[in-house]
Amino acid sequence: MCLTAPAVRGRIGLAAQDVAVYPTHTVEENLRFFGALAGLRRAELRACVDTLIETLDLTPLRRRRARELSGGQRRRLHVGCALVHRPRLILLDEPTAGADPQTRRGLLRQVRSLADEGSTVLYTTHYLQEVDELDSRVVVLGDGRVREDAGVDQLIARYTRSELVLRFTGHAPRLPWPGARVAGDTVYLPTARPGVDLVKAVELTGEDRERLRTVELSRAGLEAAYLRLIGAGRDE
Question: What kind of membrane protein is this, topologically (predicted)?
Fold first, then answer.
């Protein structure tokens, strides 16, 4: 099937990193303009604009000019202009850069909603917490090439391990534990079975148990996996 240029434009939503809205237009006017460019008309256009204004918490700002908005509010409007026509392919480049927590939550909520409805979302970000929240397929880029292409849980399992963290009064002892590392007063013990290994680790401290101050579980996360992955890639 061969699509015309207007049909293609109506299926794609793009929000680049730099905010691009018409400063002299109101929030509603900006959304109506970009919706119309994508092919929306009359009742459908009004409905899509109304829905997006509510979803992105822009209702009180509906008739405010874009130049009068805060940075986070402009960011919401900017991304909203890319989403107003509910495109099938959505390209978002650092959509929450410099955004406040409220803006970030609203945008992530809308992205998840569109993905659940069947849209394909290409989401570029350095905020790994957002990647974790979106819980989708992750492509990690480093030095100009793809380092990994997997799910969040797969990356965490592949590149990190949870650790038992034992802190002592004075210098930490060296324990006979595979992969153990010591840093000052702290021992880090990799574990796949925290409950079982906790008892074993305390027993191994022996006479040093009296100096043991705290025992914590440090769970593996996406940030640790990312740092390990990028570090491994640079060592190649």
Answer: Peripheral membrane protein
Indicate whether this model's pTM tops 0.90.
no
**Is the separation of the CB atoms in 90 and 83 below 8 Å?**
yes
SS3 of 173, please?
coil
Buried-exposed string 109-146: b where 16+ CB fall within 10 A, e elsewhere = ebbeebeeeebebebeeeebebbebbeeebebeeeeee
Listed as ranges, residues in the chain with pLDDT below 70 are 1-3, 5-6, 232-236
The amino acid that residue 175 corresponds to is L
Token pair in block for residue 40: 């929306």
State the burial class of residue 235 (Cβ atoms within 10 Å of its Cβ: 0-12, 13-18, 19+): exposed
Q: What is the four-CA torsion angle of 213, 215, 219, 225, rounded to 10 degrees?
A: 50
